[in-house]
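Subject: mismatched residue count in predicted assembly?

I count 288 residues in my input, but I want to confirm that the predicted structure covers every chain. Input:
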Amino acid sequence: MNNLTLKKIPKTDKDYILLYAEELNKHPKEIFKQQKILIDSQINSSRSFFQNMFKGKDFKTEARKYLKARGMI
Amino acid sequence: MGKQQLFIICSLKKIMAGYKLNKEVLVFDRELTELDYFVKSFLEVLKKYSDYLIVSGFVSIATGRTRATEDVDILVPIPKKEIFERLFNDLIKNKFWCYQGKTAEETWDYAKNMQNIRFAKENQMFPNMEVVFINQSKKAKYYEFSHPQQIKVKDFEFKIPPLEFEIIYKEIVLKGKKDKEDASHLRAVFQDILKEDKFKECREIIKTELKSYKQ
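Triage response: the counts match. Full output below for your records.
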């Protein structure tokens, strides 16, 4: 139904999303492999960042203080 | 071209797109990410006590969108207090911690008042599961909850909203840049299977709910 393909040089963020979706449809294995690297990297970096930030302290107590200070809880 | 040849070509096209539809289940051929393992471990506990529906960003990410996320939104019907306590304690036993409170007792008021609560893995801040409590008064949310789409990635199976609902909800309710981009991603990736009549049905349900909020 929706023939969403990109027939121009990508300029906007949306153009890049469509280009990415096209590539995902053409080369799913390669794209999913790259996606996994990025997502795993994000999670590992975040884990490492907060563990270092609260090193030697009670993680949950410090985390709740951090979240409260930012209005997240 | 014979019907059989056409069927083979259509099936190949779906596999080439990174997914296939197998008896109404969207099957993705990819490895699990750390984010998938996190959601999977949460669902393994939750499913013992409650039904659920995973919505929003994780739907786009699980279907290939490459973007960062801090939380995974999950709809859960408000449980009875006793079930909530058992679920909460089981999550703690399985090394989750709750942002909002240390015990089920101090967190129950959030659930009772339909306020979201979040769980992360011990010694981690992100990602977290943002539990959104629902009941039948939330018409649009209850509709998506009652019409789940099954997804399978390796041995990880979970439920998401109908794709058309997810797209329309992001386009006309959430409307943020990230949400509109997620919707574009879903429209492009699933262009072969999205149905116009389903869009119409979902659009009407969402618009009716929006109108009721304005009144």
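The mean pLDDT of chain B is 92. Marking this ticket as 'not a bug'.
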